[in-house]
Amino acid sequence: MAMDIIDYKIYGTETQFVEVELDPGEAAVGEAGAMMYMEDGIVMDTVFGDGSAQQKSFWGKLVGAGKRLVTGESLFTTVFQNNGSGKRKLAFAAPYPGTLIPIHLPDVGGTLICQKDSFLCAAKGVALGIEFQRKLGVGLFGGEGFVMQRLDGDGLAFIHAGGTLYQRDLAPGEVLKVDTGCIVALTRSVSYDIQYVGGLKSALFSGEGLFFAVLQGPGKIWLQSLPLSRMANRIVMAAPAMGGRSSEQGSLLGAGAAGGLLGGLLGDDE
Amino acid sequence: MTPNALALPGRLFGPGLAAAGVLVSARLDALQLSVALPDGQHLRAPLSQLGLRNAGFDGAQVEIGWVQGEQRHALLIEDAAAVARLLRDAPGGLLAAIAALQVQRRTRGVRRGLGLSAVALWLALPLLALLLLFLAARPLAGWIAGLIPTAQERQLGELVFKAQAVKLDLIQGTAANTALQRIGERLTPGSRYRYRWHIARDASVNAFAIPGGIVVVHSGLIAAAGDAGELAGVLAHEVEHVERRHSLKAMMQQAGLRLAIGAVFGDFGIVGDAAGRLSGLQFSRDSEREADRHAIDRLGAARIEPAGMLRLFAKLDASAAGAAPPVWLASHPTTPERIERLRQRIAERGFAAHQPLDIDWPAVQSSIGE
Question: How many domains does chain A have?
Fold first, then answer.
């Protein structure tokens, strides 16, 4: 299956977007709503399913769309095709602060398993599928549920996750314990299991949750430093409507010495 | 090369190799594992050095690992068919390791089955609890009703009667009232309830009991009854409703079930209502049967001829022929069924000498002007 080879450039540092360059006739698939701009000559088409070339039949498309529905994504994929005569550019933007990285699928063995909403865009021909977690414990407590997204093909795919994205190669037998929310992607060769943090005190007060994800090599893994849920949690906690308190505001309004002292003593850790 | 070598396509990981592994073909024979690298070289490891484990994202792959000097290599068998081949045809030297893998895979299967069952059970639990509640509703309602003191029941009855009395056209101070009082007192000696007997002007052949001992008889019933014995039969039935706290139990059951159905299904008004109502009707039919059966005993104890009750039911049956709803939608059992049960009860009980009710029945009937 011929993949479209696309050139790209990533802009920005904390909130990034990727600009891809399409040769005439080339196409890219993107997550609905991720497109930022496109040059004249690029035609947008919304297809049922994942737009990969191998799903020709109606039923194949239906199954593909159904799978996408399971992962919580839209039934349709948007395909951007360059119908112009020269090279044309279009850009996809990340939906929240984080890092955007390109993954050349052949470099990771042709298959990448990633968390449900991390896919941003890919060369046309990359199949977007789902991977069911067969281990009950991992499905229930792994932080990702039973369904992860699977990218198959030999083209380029862009994934995005919160904070800084960290890629790590695990040697055969190497074990890494990871906060369950921080896993973004892994190759199929990595063993994924969960482990109870151990000890009632740790379970209750360490703030790490009840389970670690245990990843064992060989293979590649990608971790995010700041899951969106964690950031959202902090923002909501700090919001005045939820009883949060802004110290700057407190001093401006002159909360009084006692209040200031108490605030300093008991102040937030942020 | 040994003739029965096992060909295994796989992905090789190790120092100096790409982090995502290198696709290789390997051969496993009775002595060693031999991996052909893309550059034409071969890696070899004797069987005794090989370690096996279930590996990969969902544990479906098998990793064959070995250490050579400081270098650790791993061959990952990804293809499901190749994994099956390895598990089936592995050379004798690996039998113990393969058996351990199999056990782990089987355990995982069993654990998953158990886990899924547990999850399914957890989800089905509210439904099971509801079903149990449906089955146990009657005894449960009875038990709860038993906890309510008579004084409170009387207050409740008083409230209900007050609400009803607005709609009722009560007849007072007639010979019928006196007769009703007399029959009632004869039926309820030593009761914990203080009975009050009322006549309401209503042409339908009916009577009803309110918790706490208030019995209301429609004037139509007195007109339809051929003698005082027939009225006594109906009164005995209503007294049983009071003594057995049927209304109170029905209230408890209805309220409890509706609460439970609401808790399980949320505010699915129609389903919950229908289920609650059908169960209420079933309760009502059971209560009627119970009241009928014990009414016969009560008549016997009061030495009143039970045949009067039968005669009245026969009249009811004749007048209401063909209009009855299906059994499961009715609040009362069908009249023929009730007559049959009453007959059986009378037959098995047997009756001693009766003491006739000394009441001038035509005078009673004319006193209410029907």
Answer: 1
Q: How far apart are CA B76 and CA A170, in angstroms?
A: 14
Tokens found for residue B176: 């019928």
pLDDT for position A72: 60
**CATH code, A211:** 3.60.160.10
Inter-residue contact A7 to A20 (CB < 8 Å): yes
Instruction: Enumerate the residues of chain A whose CB falls inside 8 A of the CB of residue B78.
Output: 188-189
Residue A35 domain boundaries: 7-229
CA–CA separation, A260 vs B298, rounded Å?
Answer: 82
Q: Cα distance from B106 to chain A (closest Cα, Å)? A: 13
Q: How far is B265 from chain A (nearest CA, A)?
A: 25
Model pLDDT, residue A1? 42
For chain A, say whether B73 makes contact (Cβ under 8 Å).
yes
Is residue B60 within 8 angstroms of chain A, CB to CB? yes
Token digits of residue A156? 């380029």
pTM equals: 0.62
B35 touches chain A (CB under 8 A): no
| Single-letter amino acid code for the residue at B122 | W
> Is residue A251 a part of any domain in this protein?
no
Q: Measure Cα distances from A131 to A68, A144, A184, A188, B268 in Å.
A: 11, 11, 14, 10, 36
Position A242 in a domain: no
DSSP secondary structure code for residue A173 in this structure? T
A28 found inside a domain: yes
Question: Which member of A107, A136, A218 has the closest CB to residue B76?
Answer: A218
Number of helices and strands in chain A (H, E): 6, 19
What residue ranges define each of the domains in chain B, with the CATH number in brackets?
Answer: 6-106 (2.30.29.30), 148-367 (no CATH)
Cβ contact, residue pair B72, A137, below 8 Å: no
Q: Quickly tell me which residue has 């009387």 as its tokens.
A: B154
The answer to the question of residue A84 being in a domain is: yes
pLDDT, one tens digit per residue, over B227-257 is: 888 889 889 998 998 888 888 888 888 888 8
Q: Helix, strand or coil for residue A11? A: strand
| DSSP 8-state symbol, A1 | -
- B301-324: average pLDDT: 76
Please name the residue ranges forming H helices in B267-349. 269-301, 307-319, 335-349
**How do residues B42-60 score in pLDDT, each as one tens digit?**
889 998 889 999 988 888 8
